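Standup notes, protein team

Yesterday: finished cleaning the Schizothecium vesticola set.
Today: RTA1 like protein-domain-containing protein structure.
Blockers: none.

Input for RTA1 like protein-domain-containing protein:
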Amino acid sequence: MSSSPAPPRPYLPPNMVIFGPKANCTLELCPVEYSVYGYRPSLAANIAFIALYSLAIGIHTFLGVRWRQWWFMGCMLAGAINAVLGYAGRLLMYKNPFNFVAFMIQIICVTTGPVYYCAAIYITFAMSIKQFSPELSRFDPKFFYYIIIPCDIVSLVLQAAGGGLSTKSSGQSKIGIDLAISGMAFQVITIVVFCGFVADFLIRYFRSGAWEQEKYQTQGHPSRATPKRLGLFFGFMGLAVLLILARCTFRLVELREGYGGKLVKDETLFIWLEGFMILLSVYCLMVGHPGLVFQRSHRAHLQDLSTDTSNDEGLRGKTPRATTVQSLRAEKRTSNR
C-alpha cells in the first residue's frame, strides 16, 4: 500500500531570503514553516526560563557572597546570564522567526551556557579531592585544571566554529556541521571521563572509612561538613552532571541531522531536553553548593593547588588523614571481635 503524498508547502513569495544575515522574511510576508525552526518559539516557556534563570542569578549571588565561593559563583552567574540572553533571543524570534541576529544570540548563548557550569563542577570536584582524602584519588587534583577544563574549552571552540560555518550556509555546510558535531562529541566524552573519575574516587572514599572520619571530625566542630551535608553535596552535584550529560547527548543527536532535521524543529524536545535539563542542573548546584562543605573559598584552594607541587609525593604516601582512616579501620575490627 503506497503512502499518501506529503502536503504541499505553503507559498513563498519570490525574492525572499528566509535565513542568514540577508534574510528579509517576516511573518507578514513568509509562512513560519520556512523559518529555521519551523515554528514561533513559545512565549510562555521563554518568559518562564528568563524568570527562573534571573531568580537563579540572585540565589547564586547570595550563596556565593555568603560562603565566599567566588569562582563557583562567577561560573554559575556567567552561565545563567548567558541563558537569560539566549532565551531573550528566542523571545525576539517569537516576534520574527526569521530574525537572524536573534537566532545567533540564542544559538550561541544557550549552547555555551553548560560549559560554565561544567567548569564550576570540575574545579569543585578538584577541591573535594584536596579536602577529603587526596591520597585516595588516582590522579592529582591539578589534573582537572590542566586537562579536563582545557578539553571543555576545546569543545566550546569547535562548537562555535562549526555553528558559525553552518549558519552562514543555512545549515548546509558539511565542514561546519562536522565541526559542531566533533565539538559536542568531545564535550560528551569529557563529561563521561569526568564521571568515571568521580565514581572511582567516591567508591574508594566510602570504602576507605573516610566517611567515618568525617563523622568523627565533625563532633564539636559545626563549621565542618557533616555527613548529611556531604550527602547533599555529592548527590546533587552528581545529578547536575548527569543532567548536563543527557542534554549534551540530545544536542549531539540533533546536530547530526543539521538545521533541516526533525529534531531541531521539535520545540517540545528542546524545552525538556535543553531548557529544563540545564535549568534543573543550575538549581541542583544550589542544593549541592560547595559552601555547604568547604570552610574556605575557591581562591584559597586554588592557591593551595598551585603551591603544593613539591608535596605531590607526600599526598600519595601515608598522610595524617590516611593514618586516621587506618586507625578507624583498626577500631572497627576490634569492635567486631
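Follow-up from PR in the comments: Residues 114-299 form one domain.
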